[in-house]
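Thread amino acids onto this structure.
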């Protein structure tokens, strides 16, 4: 009887472990979804214009201004609700551009001859040597007030790593037996690429995209913090932090609210990307 009770006690926690492991993942997903929805739909709920000067600088929260006012007397709540869209959309656009460049260059390098493929990767490595922030600063400073320049800069800074990862994944598929069998029976390289290579590197490409999104969020927020991209009056979470830090002793909400949202978004997306990498790695094993 004691043995039976012991076995039952051991069996019960085993059945409950899966939900407990999923709980952090669900929290990360909910946090990401909440911040993204706030960033995309927030401007519709802003009570005031995010660029209008409505009161004295660093006014404390009250019935009119839920989070007080910032360094120029603008409503902090309105700027927080309106300041995330640019960061999220810029990071998504940069990730998509970097993924497209990395996928194209990586697969082409794998399909080309070994010498030509190595040459292509060496050219990409020359770009990867440059600090990511330097690329962002040069391009964004060369095209002031342009979010497109920030997108291009972030994409160029992150694409070289995608190229290397996807070239290695494509090489693994191309050297497998079934691809050699497909070529031996007369399949064209285009058919092999479409039916064999691309479906089998979808997992690594998805993981790489998630990781590049984390890097893009960091670089986009840094660009906003440095005042790059849209003009200074446009709301931006990163720019709000840098603008309102000098008045931190007078009012904490103007810089703390956007900083917490940036941290929450980065941490949640980073945890989800790590979990996705673990899942794909276990599936490949």
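Threaded sequence (285 positions):
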């Amino acid at each position: 009887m004691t043995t039976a009770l012991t076995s039952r006690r051991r069996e019960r926690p085993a059945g409950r472990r899966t939900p407990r492991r999923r709980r952090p993942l669900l929290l990360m997903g909910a946090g990401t979804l909440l911040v993204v929805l706030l960033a995309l739909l927030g401007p519709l709920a802003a009570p005031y214009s995010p660029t209008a000067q409505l009161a004295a600088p660093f006014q404390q929260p009250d019935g009119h201004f839920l989070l007080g006012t910032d360094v120029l007397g603008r409503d902090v709540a309105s700027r927080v609700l309106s300041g995330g869209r640019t960061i999220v959309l810029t990071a998504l656009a940069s990730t998509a551009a970097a993924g497209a460049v990395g996928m194209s260059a990586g697969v082409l390098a794998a399909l080309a001859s070994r010498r030509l493929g190595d040459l292509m990767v060496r050219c990409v490595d020359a770009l990867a040597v440059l600090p990511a922030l330097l690329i962002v600063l040069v391009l964004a400073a060369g095209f002031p007030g342009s979010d497109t320049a920030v997108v291009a800069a972030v994409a160029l800074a992150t694409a070289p790593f995608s190229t290397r990862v996807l070239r290695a994944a494509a090489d693994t598929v191309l050297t497998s037996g079934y691809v050699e069998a497909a070529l031996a029976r007369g399949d064209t390289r285009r058919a092999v690429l479409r039916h064999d290579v691309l479906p089998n590197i979808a997992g690594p490409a998805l993981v790489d995209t998630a990781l590049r999104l984390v890097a893009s969020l960091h670089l986009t927020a840094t660009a906003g913090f440095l005042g790059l991209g849209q003009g200074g009056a446009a709301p931006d979470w990163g720019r709000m932090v840098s603008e309102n830090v000098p008045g931190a002793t007078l009012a904490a909400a103007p810089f703390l609210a956007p900083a917490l949202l940036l941290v929450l978004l980065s941490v949640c997306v980073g945890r989800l990307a790590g979990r996705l990498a673990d899942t794909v790695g276990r599936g490949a094993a």
